[in-house]
Each structure stands twice: as structure tokens, then as C-alpha cells.
Amino acid sequence: RVLQLMNLTDSRLAQAGNEKLELAMLSFFEQFRKIYIGDQVQKSSKLYRRLSEVLGLNDETMVLSVFIGKIITNLKYWGRCEPITSKTLQLLNDLSIGYPFQKSCSVRKLVKLSAVQFMLNNHTSEHFSFLGINNQSNLTDMRCRTTFYTALGRLLMVDLG
């Protein structure tokens, strides 16, 4: 239900959004990631069967694609809202941490996604407003940039080993 709600709220972000609802969804994603995404997770869990039935998300790669889509959407529409930006970047950072030397690693799956390739190729303020350089940059903006580029750096290094 959270993923269905996310689709509805994201489609209306151009008009208006709800900060508390976005933070709640990010908390959901954080818990979901800890429990259902990763190399130690049982891939035949009932959850993945149910996600396939209801939303057409057949495997972990498709779920990772939803996560990355949400991250990009949040960074695009909520780039000037520090709590959402920070929590979104923390989710990206957490997803980028893995064990890339394992063949089935979720980080390897992540790097292959077109949305991740988009981030790796378009990391400018045109796409992500929090990266904009202005005279009023504060420590929080710099921390967000650091988290963002740390995660991108990890993702770039996956294929290099």
C-alpha cells in the first residue's frame, strides 16, 4: 500500500507535496531495505510473490528500480527541503554499500539500472537542485553533497572491484 500511495503522491508533486508523508515513506523504505534487500535475504520470500501479484515487481532488481526512482524524484522536487534531502541521500548511501565482489550483489544490480546511470551521468544542479552553488551554501548543503558524491563514488567503483 505504501508503494501505491507513493505512486499517487509522486504524480502530484508538481502541484504540492506533504513533507511529513514523504519522511514517513522514506522511513518505510529504510526499514524495507534492511529487511528485504540485500545479499542475505531469502529471495523466495512471500513478500516478493505478493509484490509481483499486486504491483508487477517480480524481483529485487525491480524493487531497487522503484527505490532509485523515488530517490531521484525526491532530489528533484524536494532539493530545498533539508530533512527530506538528507534522509533520501542516506537511503542512497545505504543502498550503495554492499559487497560488490559477490556475483548476486544488490549493488551490482543497482549499478545496471538506467536510473542509476542517469545519476552517474547527470549529477548537476540542473537535475538536483541541492547541488547548486550559491553564496548562501551552508554546512547542511555541503554534507548533502558529500553524501551524494560518496554514494556515487561507491557505485562507480563497483565494476572496478
General shape: globular
- The secondary structure category is mainly alpha
Instruction: Tell me the total number of β-strands.
Output: 0
- Low-pLDDT runs of 5+ residues are none
Strand residues, percent: under 5%
Order of helices and strands: HHHHHHHH
If you had to describe this structure to a student in words, what would you say it looks like?
This protein has one domain (1-160). It contains eight helices and no strands. The termini are far apart. 24% of the residues are buried. The longest helix has 19 residues, at 139-157. The chain has helices at residues 2-11, 19-36, 46-55, 60-77, 82-96, 106-112, 114-121, 139-157. With 161 residues, it is mainly alpha-helical.
Which tags fit this structure?
161 residues; mainly alpha
What is the fold's blueprint, element by element?
Elements: H1 2-11, H2 19-36, H3 46-55, H4 60-77, H5 82-96, H6 106-112, H7 114-121, H8 139-157
GO cellular component, one term: cytoplasm
Main location: cytoplasm
Pfam families: TPR_XPO7
State the gist of this model.
The chain is 65% helix and 0% strand. With 161 residues, it is mostly helical.
